[in-house]
Write a structure and sequence with these properties.
By secondary structure, this protein is an all-alpha fold. Helices cover 71% and strands 0% of the residues. α1 (2-22) runs antiparallel to α2 (37-55), α3 packs antiparallel against α4 and α4 runs antiparallel to α5.
Length: 143
């Protein structure tokens, strides 16, 4: 039943997406492809995939227990807080905190999770900011 609900929701989303795309006003100066082509292609793929799931669902899934579901929800909350904390704390500190928490929840000891958090944040900072020159969120200390 879960697959059928998911398929029906995806099919409705595809129809809504296609309807929204068809509301786009095209300029007389637009190229032959136009601004509607790519969104309509995405809506078509979503609709076909959802229809396939709706018509031929898989076996009934095993849903996580309530405790595991709360952990998944906590991880989602951490990711939302991470996005909000980027401006206040900066990329390195916010990434360190989020990665440390997520690593810890994946059964790492807290000290190892902290090392993973620092290593991930500094590694990404070095690659993307220092080597590639991309802009990352700056915190109170400038990084």
């Amino acid at each position: 039943m879960s697959d059928r609900i998911f398929g029906a929701f995806g099919l409705m989303l595809a129809i809504f997406f296609a309807w929204g795309t068809l509301q786009i006003q095209e300029s007389f100066l637009s190229d032959t492809v136009g601004p509607k082509t790519f969104p309509l292609l995405i809506a078509s793929l979503l609709g076909l995939s959802s229809f396939a799931i709706l018509v031929r669902p898989g076996p009934e899934p095993v849903w996580p227990s309530l405790g595991r579901f709360v952990e998944i929800l906590a991880a989602v909350v951490v990711m939302v807080l991470y996005v909000e904390a980027l401006d206040m704390l900066g990329f390195v500190f916010a990434t360190t905190l989020a990665t440390t928490y997520l690593s810890w929840r994946l059964q790492s000891p807290l000290w190892q999770a902290g090392l993973v958090g620092v290593g991930t944040a500094v590694g990404i900072y070095v690659i993307f900011h220092l080597l590639l020159g991309l802009s990352l969120a700056r915190g109170p200390f400038g990084f």
